[in-house]
What we know:
- The protein contains ten helices and 15 strands.
- It has about 325 residues and is an alpha/beta fold.
- Strands 3, 4, 5, 6, 7, 14 and 15 form a seven-stranded mixed beta sheet that branches.
- The termini are close together.
Amino acid sequence: MKAIQVHEFGGPEVLKLEEIPTPKPGAGQVLVKVHAAGVNPYDTYMRSGTYAIKPPLPYTPGSDAAGLVDSVGTGVTKVKAGDRVYTAKTISGAYAEYTLAEESQVEKLPANITFDQGAAIWVPYGTAYHALNQEAKALAGETVLVHGASGGVGSAAVQIARAKGLTVFGTAGTDKGLGLVKKEGAHEAFNHTKPGYTDEIMKATGGKGVNIILEMLANVNLSNDLKLLAQYGRAVIIGNRGEITINPRDLMARRSSVRGFTLWAVTDAEAREIHAGLNAGFENGSLRPIIGREIPLAEASRAHKEILELGSHGKIILVP
């Protein structure tokens, strides 16, 4: 099969399309013929060698894929050959024509969700659900600010929050992004490249501040975020690319808090809740993964460059 291989950590150029053996499922494993693979920012950090997890070389990147079950190993009862599925992590990597996964890492794909959309589920929607519901413990009627709301995780968070009954504010850096944020359910959209946009957000809350902030770029925004929180507000760090200085008094005055997490550390019970909540939203139409671009698998290096560009919107998908 054809697969992207990384033989050394480095820039996007280290992503090479190669012919490697197709894996075979062992006991409790599922082999999926990949129709689409999702590209996530963490894929680029791992490839560069700067991520907390460094896989043994060589490796095939990617955790999010969607396709058809090709075959299953002994003991597998959750799915069978021919089932439409999406993956939440894999054993062998998603940037390939086939991917091997544990039975627990495979979920059936709702009939109204395409393969492209299925490849945009686990990291974007799993992250957004975990941040909003399990970390921030959001309640209907609260106000949430989603920074970077036009991206994969951001648009997922907007949809989830709106369906849950929150007042949703989102930020983006382009007119196209702002339009997408409003289209996906945000009550208000703000241009985070515009001077004074935080004043506009505070004004929109009547000076009370927001209850929850979902932060995609903490090294840029966290200091200002803390000033936007309401009493007992919660800021949840989803993404970060460096250090930042904050004033703890901003937290003390509001009795607010900052939380961080990694999706890889969710418990089995949390994962079951995430999948159940997301699949219900996909089935009733309240959650709709937004696909920004389809890129051929052979051009994975281009995908790794484009996903980190400013003004991104929707999900980048690799197609074998």
